[in-house]
Amino acid sequence: MQESTLSVRRPPPNPDESAGDDESKTKKGSSFNCLSMHAAARSASGGAAVLLLLLVAVLLVSFLLVSRSRSASCSSPFDSLGSRMSLFGGAYLASDFGSLGVPWCRSKFGKTVEWTSKDLLKGLEEFVPIYEARPIKNNVYGMGFDHSFGLWFMTRWIKPDLMIESGAFKGHSTWVLRQAMPETPIISLSPRHPEKYLKKGPAYVDGNCTYFAGKDFVDFGSVKWEPILKKHGISYLSRVVVFFDDHQNELKRLKQALKAGFQHLIFEDNYDTGTGDHYSLRQICDQVYIRGGGHSCFKDSDEARIRMKRKKFWEKAVDIDELCGKGEAWWGVRGHMRDDFNHSNKAISYAEHFQNSRFVESVLDVYWELPPVAGPSLTHQTRYDPARASDPIVEDGRYGLFQRLGLGRLETSVFNGYTQMVYLRISAPTA
Ligand SMILES: C[S@@+](CC[C@H](N)C(=O)[O-])C[C@H]1O[C@@H](n2cnc3c(N)ncnc32)[C@H](O)[C@@H]1O
Ligand SMILES: *[C@@H]1O[C@H](CO)[C@@H](O)[C@H](O)[C@H]1NC(C)=O
Ligand SMILES: *[C@@H]1O[C@H](CO)[C@@H](O)[C@H](O)[C@H]1NC(C)=O
């Protein structure tokens, strides 16, 4: 399969406006020094006059070098997965990113979610056949497998009385919510009604969903929630799940949700620092006092070297040049707070960025990032850097389990969209 078909997922352009290319650059599998290594091997074997023992030793060493460099640099992106392992020390360990690691947001009292990795595995087994029956097979610019599973799993666990989604596109996520809760009402906000897509191909319109779409579209932040919730018989806001896949500044959405009193939020695209088209929770919480947070723009640093290496293998990894903007601004995206599919891009100071994280911490009861469903040697995804994601549900090497769960039956392209979907439980700031 071609790189381009695998790379097509994350929109940054608003998918309703454009069918344009993904923002992320396609990185070529490097083929540096295959030739020079072959040459080295040849010249080594040419030294026939030298002691036999030495020759054997030299040949052995060059052979090792050649085979290593071959596997590391001369193969297709997929063949090189094995070499990625050897290059980075035998696995895709988070610790491979050295001082960087995986950032997270602190919650007020350090609470975490109820579900365990065992629950996630059980969920996966159940979800694979459901996903295989999805109406929209090609959901480029929308959710792939990982996030579909995450949304389904969390919604089913929380068992809300009302589900709200912002950002429907063709309706795949509406369908996922419906699979999780067959009888629960949905409210869907999206500038373009999913039914519009039916003319061109598969789309999903739900029979028990109130659409604020098309001419009835209202932005989440402008909705008068009280009468709507009343109409749906909702008296406890703890009974509502809100799902955001609308590429808006997540700080803005968080404040709006808090004001309305919502408590369970799921954000689809929780982009890592230096990437994405809107300011995300993960970006906000990326601070020097968080392990894996805070960055250096110093070109001679360990971080710069690690980033450069990682970028060769993972399309979404960013090096120091991409990470840092004017004045060594690394926070957000090069010191900017992006919003609305990057239609707005506002420079913020470090002090402002820092205040944002303090605010977020003051309202968080739980912050939980969905892990990728399976390690990259199993899914063959080449986009997100596993060193910046939590450990996968099905770890690398567990091929039998991967197959048993039915994950091997899915097209590999559905595993390319992982962007750290996050679940938040929030409440008013404690004074
Ligand atoms: C990435 S797509 C959503 C994909 C969808 N959730 C899925 O799973 O297939 C983003 C959607 O957000 C919509 N959108 C743009 N601005 C929005 C806004 N202010 N509020 C809600 N949705 C918005 C876009 O029109 C687009 O349909
Ligand atoms: C809507 O939900 C009700 C109650 O669960 C159900 O009886 C009805 O069939 C649903 N309607 C559609 C169109 O799905
Ligand atoms: C985002 O917006 C800024 C400012 O308009 C622009 O310089 C940048 O190239 C945009 N990035 C993407 C990926 O669209």
UniProtKB/TrEMBL annotation:
Q: Where are the transmembrane segments?
A: 46-66
Q: Which UniProt keywords apply?
A: Membrane, Transmembrane, Transmembrane helix
Q: Where is this region: Disordered?
A: 1-27
Could you identify this protein by its name? Uncharacterized protein
PANTHER family given in the database record: DNA-DIRECTED RNA POLYMERASE SUBUNIT BETA
Q: Provide the Gene Ontology terms for cellular component.
A: endomembrane system
Which source organism does the UniProt entry give? Iris pallida
